[in-house]
Amino acid sequence: MLKTLSVILLPRSNIRVCWAWTAAPRLGLRKVRPGWWDHHHALYVCIQYVGHQLRGCDAGVRGYRSGHMVHQPRSHWRGGYAEDKRHRGRAYFGPAGARYAGTPVGLLGDAGTFSFYPTKNLGVCGEGGAFVSKHPTVMDHAQLLRVHSSPKRYLHTEVGFNFRMDGFQGAVLNVKLKKLPDWTTRRRAIAANYLAWIKLPGVQLPVVPAYGESVWHQFMLLHPKRDALRDHLRKAGIATEITYPGPMHLQPCYAVLGYSPGSLPVAERTSQDCCLSLPVFPEMSDEQRDYVIATVNAFPS
pLDDT tens digits for 106-156? Predict the structure, then answer.
């Protein structure tokens, strides 16, 4: 993520807009307001707000970064946003295998990154990630940055990074890559069963957009009695997760941005009270899937 922003989002001006919470501050970038899209249960940039920001300071904006968090591509690639040609970098960060209108999401922007964290759909046994770009000059710059911007030993042309993934992690990925399509198929089948068979009153299930193909890194539902539902599942031996239990704009490290409780009420309410992730993984048996569904439906709401 940090490399992507370094390569294509750093402008030669003093106005910088993106939304990468962790990487952007390290590079002095200014973030636009993040929001929460109820229908897809994932943090994303409120694209209407971004558009307003871009129109209001067009001359100084270098690029924007899209995050396809959780499991499926964001709709702001629609309506011409991905085709914006006004000298902006378009960075992508998202799930391996997801598609937007039939196109792998890693091909949508000028550059993109994939995390191979062990819990990801395609994960290594330690730390790892990948950078991709459709532009040879961008790839050349990225490859230089990954080794301290050193084209030859003891020569450094700019301040770079130590982003070299060790060969063992690459060997793990070579094995797992062959299995990823089958794993994704199984995740999609489990998610489809959840969507069809979970009938708990008051529950809000993810919406699968017509333009996207999800890889279901997580299956996140909303329920007004989230904590009680989680305790009900725990007593039945079913592990769940509260993914992002607090919104990023209220983290102490971002107090300097000036956000306060109530600034983003939908994000705050959803993350703190409603959002819950159910088990979804390729090795999950039909019996385990059915047990999860039956237990959710049995919650006394």
Answer: 777 777 788 899 999 999 999 888 888 888 888 888 888 888 989 999 999
Rounded distance, CA 149 to CA 126, Å? 24
d(CA 218, CA 215): 8
The Cα–Cα gap between 277 and 219 comes to 5
Beta-carbon contacts of residue 229 (< 8 Å; ≥ 6 apart): 223, 276, 296, 299, 301
Residue 78's Cβ-count burial label (10 Å; 0-12, 13-18, 19+) is middle
CA dihedral 135, 137, 139, 143 (to 10 degrees): 180
In a domain? residue 37: no
pLDDT in tens, 175-200: 999 999 999 999 999 999 999 999 99
Cα-based torsion angle of the residue sequence 80, 218, 2, 49 in order, rounded to the nearest 10 degrees: 40
| 155 lies in some domain | no
pTM above 0.85, yes or no: no
- In whole angstroms, give the CA distance from residue 201 to residue 247: 26
Which residue's structure tokens are 């971004």?
50
Q: Are 149 and 158 in contact (CB under 8 A)?
A: yes
Can you give 54-98 as a three-state secondary structure string?
HHHCHHHCCEEEEECCCCCCCHHHCCCHHHCCCCCEEEEECCCCC
Range of the domain at 186: 179-297
Query: What is the CATH classification number for the domain harbouring 220?
Result: 3.90.1150.10
Relative orientation angle of helices 286-297 and 167-197, to the nearest 10 degrees: 50
- What are the distances in angstroms from CA 289 to CA 74, 122, 280, 292, 293? 27, 21, 8, 5, 6
